[in-house]
Design brief:
Chains A, B: One of its GO terms (biological process) is carbohydrate metabolic process. Chains A, B: GO terms for molecular function: hydrolase activity. Chains A, B: This is Glycoside hydrolase family 127 protein. The structure is a homodimer. The longest helix of chain A is centred in the first third of the chain and has 20 residues. With about 650 residues, chain A is of the alpha+beta class. Chain A contains 18 helices and 23 strands. Among the domains of chain A are: about 200 residues, no CATH class; about 100 residues, Immunoglobulin-like; about 120 residues, no CATH class. Chain A is globular, with a radius of gyration of 25 Å. In chain A, the strands form 3 sheets. Chain A has a 7-stranded antiparallel β-sheet, with no helix packed on it. Chains A and B meet through helix 14, strand 14 and strand 20 of A and helix 14, strand 14 and strand 20 of B.
């Protein structure tokens, strides 16, 4: 429909073979997805029951019993199916496929004649479908089913689940819309919007795109849908308060989406919505909508994002707060929100390749998202603070949402499957193609088959990220081909050096990408060297939490201090502003990571005495040899203090 | 019973005439107490109803209707009566006395034959008296009635209310005690304990002292009283959760009081309990109890107290948290808690005059307590943060308890009457007498008649505090008298200079007091000069919130920066470590206060651009001429930023 959009890369064409990332993807395949399957079937000893599969069995008439769980319990099955779909797109696994086929049979059996499927409403509130969108995630759950179905269909070519969700989407299309006999409404938790775009891509059916756009455009209009359905259903609440109905900004329903100036409310909902807005802008060429996307992007990344790519400054309402309010210790920075930010970034890159989108995507991926999962794949952070004083957890309730170590699966039911589906589909985030240009956004080793100007080009990539900034491409073409390879020069890089077939290449740059345009032939090699100095990052002067402090970053990785290396009382450490940073790979730390060592000063307690306040205190310091480790790897050595931002000293 | 205790000064003997404090006491008399009376009678337009007087009228059979309000609604009437008592002790007011007599008649009429009085139970749960001490403040309410009665009796000599609360106390004594037919219990909110000591002083009846000690000693013992009464009443909750029953430390019932090592839980309860512990230790010479008082005192003032004398680091549970956890922005620091800390300090001074107790008393009084009330006497802070970013209030829910301006009466029902009764009884806190020594703790102008060694001595004091450190005493004696006048040398003072009848006097000091022992004759004059430099206060290195920062103090006053004087973005201000502080009285600021001016530096935003984080940021500063104002006077010029702690720069 429009020329704005880059073509979508099939995950099938990308095979990741990377010393850093392959291990994470293996974890998803070997640990996370099987573990999740056990969880969905209530086979994890000691865990709270999920009963998500059982809900479907009851709805399908295979078992008897009652619905159990949250109103959106079905979405756990859907996200599992989506992760399975991505895994199968990159590597066949007949056993896994067989399990998934059985789940699909079950979902199809539970589906009502008219296409409707949602085990909560089918079992618990039959006849009350579509009466409480603001609170009950009914379209959200449908959206996840659609995403799972599309991923599985793309992996296997099997249409059963795709057909099922088409019937579901058609049913939704018959219920919602601008026509007088339909509901002019939308879901409290955005998700259906981006899912319908995926369904449109999978099927080519324009009505799904139209329905997605309807949901977006309807949002936040007056007279307000939440009020209308509230009155219609007799003023009942699902969650025991009318908060989700009255606090419109919580679900970004306080104004029409094109009029929203800043990132407000529940952070996951906002970025899921933005991803769909960008999708629709790309498909329709709607400049107003694209402008709204750019505005909300800017609101997030220039005023409301942690240096780790985390978003959402407060636990209450899992929400954005206000500009420049980014407390390190009480941060929410939900793992899912950074995943959603990556979704949004990916869509913006599809529209307008600009390295600033990719910089944020990389920042969120390498820091918050990666930090969300432990190295064993069995423990997860929901909340990702930038500073931790574990002694205060449990004692000062301001930190009740902060966990000092990653929790088992059921400590946080939404983030683990989200991490799984993102990592399983990582190949989708590396490149975009537009016209005769291939943009490389993330440097992750492996092979990608990309169609440019009608020809299939194979890009073999080797990357030493995140430890060193050396990246090498080798191309295979069927015949000589004229196109541009656009290599992202990350914001963290020193002066990049490019060699084409061994010769220095002086590339033009555009929007943060070094452009190599030529007639490519098989065997052409490009080497990219991105100097990785240790960077002393400063926060904007209006960022209250970071004034007078610095954070270290090297390559895409933000670093932190941990008690394990530096002792307690990290608050007393000061970095001399000219102190030299030495980076080295330490095979003995955290299974092998690049650490940063720096001489610093520690506020001395020695001569202080026991007074809490002193009038004549001569501040004295002791030398301290500090070791910084990558933020993503924190909290893997027991409970201890952690800090990303460290005080500076002239 | 013991020699440890100093004699109690009658408020009647103290007449405050002070350029600083008289105005506050006038406010209590002319504004706060009348306003409170209107509030108790539901005559404040726009305010939530109190119905506290009406509850008594219904209980007395004068009106019909239902109980309204909190379970401890009666205590509002009691605190009003207590403030009235103090006002009448210092100045007769026949009209006010008449109103109070009518209230007393009403209370007496509502009182049951057996002495019991509590309108909640009489009207709402008759027959359920004494079944839910852990939650329902029944003894707390009785304690306030007793305090009110004693104050009124001491003012007027009228026994009616004293006799009524004696009957109440005797009833309580018949219900509670170690005997098998009595309840071995105590109140969830400590208050009765200190009230019974006052009743003992007023009546000489040792059983009240014994009962107080019983309540203290019973607290926190196993098997736990809260469990026993919970089972006995059939596991019901008053507040909808069993939190007050199961979280023992909330009400300092997690261990016997002598075994409590640190200040835990609800901060007001803790200090009310400590005040009673000190009372009992003084009366009984119980060294173990005194040691427990010292231990809890030390826990508060060396690890858990704000520089403003505020206590309680978190809003949740209005509570202490852990050592060195004193966040400025999310502080609770309830006004009532600082008042309770003053109660505790006063009792410790009675036992062992040590200027460290008086230093804390003064710190809490001049900063948090005074700051709790507006200059019009009609607006109050419940919560006293040390840093405010008003834009975040209402947007970041971590600050939901923080109000950027003082609220009208019913925004906070407990602090205003507590401020009123403290200020109305300020005369009780100035001096203690022990043997042949009179210790002057607070420098407040006026006259005090104090009996020393059988002779009544009149101390006429003139004080320039808090603006200047000049204090002058003139004594009137009936005949020459040999005793020691011990003048507190505050922690904030430079080298003190004392002149006796115009001659330099080289005083010995003991426990922070300069001792002047001599045969005093009428007309003897003592002049005390306490140099008031601007002090740069530092926090203990383990105080996370204050590392790298400084607070200014001059005399007893802690200072702060306000947006009104210094613009927005106080977080970007840095005090050069050697910058000179100039203090001057500014009649145009806040109705005339001593301000402090200092040249500082402001982090520049000029060349920053819109990036949130920068790798190459050269921090640049602009000069900034800062004005600090006394903390107690903040938030009297509209809504704006405020900060006590300011960053330092080498």
């Amino acid at each position: 429909m429009s020329q704005q959009r880059s073509s979508v890369l099939s995950l099938k064409g990308v095979r990741i073979q990377d010393p850093f990332w392959s291990e994470y993807i293996r974890l998803v395949r070997d640990v996370v997805v099987p573990y999740q399957w056990d969880a969905l079937n209530d086979r994890v000893p000691g865990a709270e029951p999920s009963r998500a599969i059982r809900n479907f069995k009851i709805a399908a008439g295979e078992e008897t019993g009652e619905f159990y769980g949250m109103v959106f319990q079905d979405s756990d099955v859907a996200k599992w199916l989506e992760a399975v779909g991505y895994l199968l797109q990159t590597e066949p696994d007949p056993d896994l496929e067989q399990v998934a086929d059985a789940v699909i049979d079950l979902i199809a059996k539970a589906q009502r004649e008219d296409g409707y499927v949602n085990t909560y409403y089918l079992l618990k509130e039959p006849g009350r479908e579509w009466t409480n969108l603001s609170e009950c995630h009914e379209l959200y759950t449908a959206g996840h089913l659609i995403e799972g179905a599309v991923a599985y269909y793309q992996a296997t070519g099997k249409r059963k689940i795709l057909d099922a969700v088409c019937r579901l989407a058609d049913h939704i299309d018959s219920v919602f819309g601008p026509e007088p006999d339909k509901i002019r409404g939308y879901d409290g938790h955005q998700e259906i919007e981006l899912a319908l775009v995926k369904l449109y891509h999978a099927t080519g059916e324009a009505r799904y795109l139209r329905l997605s756009r309807f949901f977006l455009d309807e949002r936040g209009r007056e007279p307000h849908f939440y009020d209308r359905e509230y009155e219609r259903r007799g003023r009942t609440n699902h969650w025991g308060s009318d908060f989700m109905i009255t606090k419109r900004s919580y679900s970004q329903a306080h104004a029409p989406i094109r009029e929203q100036e800043s990132a407000e409310g529940h952070s996951v909902r906002l970025v899921y919505m933005c991803a769909a807005m960008a999708d629709i802008a790309a498909e329709t060429g709607d400049e107003g909508l694209l402008e709204a996307c750019r505005r909300l992007w800017k609101s997030i990344v220039t005023r409301r994002m942690y240096v780790t790519g985390g978003i959402g400054s407060m636990a209450q309402e899992e929400s954005f707060t206000l500009d420049y309010d980014l407390p390190s210790d009480t941060a929410y920075a939900e793992t899912c929100a950074s995943i959603g930010l990556i979704f949004f970034a990916q869509r913006m890159l599809n529209i307008e390749p600009d390295s600033r989108y990719a910089d944020v995507m990389e920042r969120a991926l390498y820091n918050t998202v990666l930090g969300g999962m432990s190295k064993d794949g069995r423990h997860f952070f929901y909340v990702n603070p930038l500073e931790l004083w574990p002694d205060a957890c449990g004692k000062n309730h301001a930190y009740d949402h902060v966990k000092p170590v990653r929790q088992g699966w059921f400590g946080c039911a939404c983030c683990p499957p989200n991490v799984a589906r993102l990592l399983a589909s990582l190949g989708q985030y590396l490149y975009t193609v537009k016209d005769r240009s291939v943009n490389a956004h993330l440097y992750v080793g492996g092979e990608a088959d990309i169609e440019v100007g009608g020809q299939r080009i194979r890009f073999k990539q080797q990357s030493e990220l995140p430890w060193e900034g050396r990246v090498r491409f080798e191309l295979e073409v069927e015949s000589e081909s004229d196109f541009t390879l656009a290599l992202r020069i990350p914001e963290w890089s020193g002066a990049a050096v490019i060699r084409l077939n061994g010769e220095l290449y002086d590339a033009e740059t555009a929007n943060g990408y070094a452009l190599i345009r030529r007639w490519w032939k098989s065997g052409d090699q490009v080497e990219l060297v991105l100097p990785m100095d240790v960077l002393r990052i400063k926060g904007h002067p209006l960022l209250r939490d970071t004034v007078g402090k610095t954070a270290l970053q090297r390559g895409p990785l933000v670093y932190c201090l941990e008690e394990a290396d530096n002792g307690k009382n990290l608050q007393g450490l000061f970095l001399p502003s000219r102190s030299e940073a030495i980076s080295e790979f330490d095979p003995n730390t955290l299974g092998g990571v690049q650490v940063i060592r720096m001489d610093a000063q520690r506020l001395s307690e020695k001569d202080w005495g026991e007074e809490l306040y002193r009038r004549d205190a001569d501040t004295s310091f002791e030398p301290a040899a500090l070791t910084f480790v990558p933020y993503y790897a924190w909290a893997n050595r027991g409970v201890g203090e952690m800090a990303v931002w460290v005080k500076e000293k002239a």
